């Protein structure tokens, strides 16, 4: 008994069902008697997060490198809390992390993947990244995209290519889940993956991302 909690990240395109699955997974773990909570990035409640929010809602224009660094800073400002919570035995289920950071910035075509990874090197490394793989057809059927910057089909396709590149760099870290299935089927698959991870990491040190 005891030991640290797991850092489990869910990644995927818009309309992949990520946010719903994060909530369901936390509920499941809690119902099993585990200490678990959700986090999400960007965290729009901080000062840096407020700038990110303005940018996403299209009001504010920022250089591609600058907004990339702000997204990264928004993770760095949470790292002490992440480490403390994991160490206290709490499992964190995170809606997007540095992989979204790299995929969305690199998809613009102005910044390369290796440059994009730089500022996030040394963040707490996830124990597992679950990728909710949704086709553009199914994403469309789910009600299409919203109004924010990046919520456009053409751009999302480029983001998908960048996610694929990141997965092929670290195949052992990722679990791909077919998110075209029903929400309940996806929930079940994710629960199977996550509960195993939670039990496996209790005695492992927290890793350091991309170092
Ligand atoms: N996004 C998210 C980034 O561009 N970089 C990042 O580092 C992160 C975490 O922000 F389009 C993008 C992805 C998405 C947008 O995210 C807002 P949510 O999950 O829809 O709030
Ligand atoms: Mg969104």
TrEMBL record:
Coiled-coil stretches noted in the UniProt entry, renumbered to this chain: none
Sample GO molecular function, one term: nucleoside diphosphate kinase activity
Domain Thymidylate kinase-like: 10-190
Main location: plastid
GO biological process, one term: dTDP biosynthetic process
Record's subcellular location: Plastid, Chloroplast
CDD domains the UniProt entry points to: TMPK
One Gene Ontology CC term in the entry: mitochondrion
Pathway(s) the chain acts in: Pyrimidine metabolism; dTTP biosynthesis
Protein name (record): Thymidylate kinase
Species this chain originates from: Guillardia theta (strain CCMP2712) (Cryptophyte)
